């Protein structure tokens, strides 16, 4: 079976990129992406056939984010791929190819957040003239997005949370196949002396809230092992605090080492679709302190494999003080067992079933 994977971008060390890598390996797939930067994502991508719509050495690659995004929609809409048995789509821009490429399957990590659930938050960032322009643009972008989804043959959501949003926004049903973690790769090493944050440094992940909490706990150490649009902000916030260390993106080997040696992980995301980072944490035998809503509630079991909270600076402080090294260590076995529910084998089994169904219908 010849498979094409179409993904918005491969430019960071994220959950989507991990899944694309796994699919490419298991299905021997070709990859088509809007943006690709081999220097800022998993090096294993160099082993695969990748076609980029906007080459990294072109001037278009450096265009402003919003303008480049509209260009990518156009580029995807003009793609004309042939001789594939199925097309697997990741991301909102990749949906443009659904009109002319069948059979197709959309693995939905989330409907585009800033168009729907985070629309009001995004709107509030702009002054009046820009806000009105943004409001008008979003009206047409939503119409295009919903039109594209009508051409999708099958939707597979990464969580029940996302499944419900797909139903609410698009009126479409979706299967659920949870994202995978290579549980053989992550390992408990020891209960060390630091807490770990691995969420991408972007506004909705609210890592700044975690840093503010640790600013008030000089006796508790925090390591932030990630990067993103708020990297400079988080780096500035950590200055002068010997207990807070910001590493930026780290290699997969370093990340596994950090997971294996921390006390616990800490997350404060707003509108988390699933939260693979919590599963990586549990696969390492480490509990996760995470928001008590949306995606994290499908993986973290409160007071058994972590602690679910309403994220505020005060509540993060209370949670960290509650999650002592001794208490975290007692959760090790429960964490490791829970992580097995999200293995790569179970994921591939679910995706294969969905692929067979959509191919059988065409």
UniProtKB/TrEMBL annotation:
Q: Which residues form the Glycosyl transferase family domain?
A: 183-341
Q: Kindly give the PANTHER family that the UniProt entry links to this protein.
A: GLYCOSYLTRANSFERASE
Identify one Pfam family in the record: Glycos_transf_1
Q: Name one GO molecular function term.
A: glycosyltransferase activity
Q: Which InterPro entries match?
A: Glyco_trans_1
Q: Source organism's superkingdom?
A: Bacteria
- What this protein is called in its record is Glycosyltransferase family 4 protein
């Amino acid at each position: 079976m010849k498979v094409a994977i179409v993904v918005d971008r491969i430019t960071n060390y994220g959950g989507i990129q991990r899944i694309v890598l796994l699919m490419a390996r298991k299905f021997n797939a070709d990859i088509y992406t809007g943006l690709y930067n081999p220097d800022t994502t998993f090096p294993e991508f160099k082993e695969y056939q990748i076609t980029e719509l906007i080459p990294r050495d072109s001037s278009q690659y450096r265009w402003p984010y919003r303008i480049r995004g509209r260009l990518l929609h156009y580029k995807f809409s003009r793609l004309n791929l042939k001789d594939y048995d199925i097309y697997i789509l990741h991301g909102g821009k990749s949906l443009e190819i659904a009109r002319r490429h069948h059979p197709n399957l959309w693995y939905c990590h989330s409907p585009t957040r800033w168009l729907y659930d985070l629309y009001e938050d995004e709107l509030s960032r702009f002054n009046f003239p820009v806000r009105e322009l943004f409001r008008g643009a979003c009206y047409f972008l939503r119409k295009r997005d919903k039109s594209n989804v009508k051409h999708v043959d099958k939707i597979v959501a990464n969580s029940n949370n996302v499944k419900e949003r797909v139903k609410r926004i698009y009126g479409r049903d979706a299967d659920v196949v949870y994202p995978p973690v290579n549980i053989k790769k992550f390992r408990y090493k020891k209960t060390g002396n630091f807490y770990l944050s691995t969420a991408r440094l972007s506004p909705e992940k609210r890592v700044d809230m975690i840093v503010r909490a640790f600013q008030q706990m000089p006796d508790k150490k925090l390591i932030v092992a990630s990067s993103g649009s708020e990297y400079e902000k988080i780096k500035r916030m950590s200055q002068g605090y010997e207990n807070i260390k910001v590493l930026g993106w780290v290699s997969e080997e370093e990340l596994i080492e950090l997971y294996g040696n921390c006390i616990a992980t800490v997350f404060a995301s707003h509108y988390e679709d699933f939260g693979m980072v919590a599963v990586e944490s549990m696969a390492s035998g480490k509990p996760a302190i995470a928001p008590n809503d949306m995606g994290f509630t499908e993986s973290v079991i409160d007071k058994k494999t972590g602690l679910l909270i309403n994220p505020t600076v005060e509540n993060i402080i209370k949670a960290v003080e509650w999650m002592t090294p001794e208490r975290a260590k007692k959760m090790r076995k429960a964490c490791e067992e829970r992580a097995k529910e999200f293995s790569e084998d179970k994921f591939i089994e679910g995706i294969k079933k969905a692929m067979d169904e959509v191919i059988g219908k065409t």
